[in-house]
Amino acid sequence: MQIQNAGFNIHQLPLSQILWNFYEAKTVTVTSVGVPGSILAPLATVTLSNGEMRGTIVANSINANGEELYEAPFKGNWLVP
Q: What is the DSSP string of 30-77?
């Protein structure tokens, strides 16, 4: 999964309730992006560069270069089918 040069406007939704779910991904690369919310990628190497992350990251490994990281723990509801 790769996301580059993007921005997200998520109005009136708390960061603590946003979850980007990449549960099957082996790699997630985010470049020059402001990411609102948490990333779930337990099997992936997550690479973040030149952007901003406001949330929690669950990953196999994380590489961050020039990334601003701000904690905003996920507090949403887990819906299990």
A: EES-EEESEEEEEEEEEEEESSEEES-EEEEEEEEES-EEE-------
